[in-house]
User: What shape does this take?
Amino acid sequence: KIGTGGWTAYNQITATGNIGGAPAGDLIARDKNGVLWLYLGKGDGTFTARRQIGGGWNAYTDTLGIGDADYDGRPDLFAYGPNKTAYFYAGTGDLGRPFATRVTSPALTGLPAHDHLS
Assistant: This one.
């Protein structure tokens, strides 16, 4: 258990690895309005208060923490949307802007089309 109440505000929660440099992995939660929130892991099974890190993420059907895909030592994020759109977001190491501008990704864009990630 990591908290009580309030989690129903989110339609997706993604484990991302250690974005914030603290002793534990972090969570990203997307609310029903497409706002992305970051919860930094404290290392004791709890998380800091949320911090807003973006908007417009309801354009995607899924987001997925993919570890360090570009081998720069920072966790990255993958987003998949309708019409077989896929994007890669490189981790920046900056808590104010934890992910760089999206880059089109060929992952999962072939046939058959996918409607979610897991």
The mean pLDDT is 85. The two ends are 21 Å apart (CA to CA).
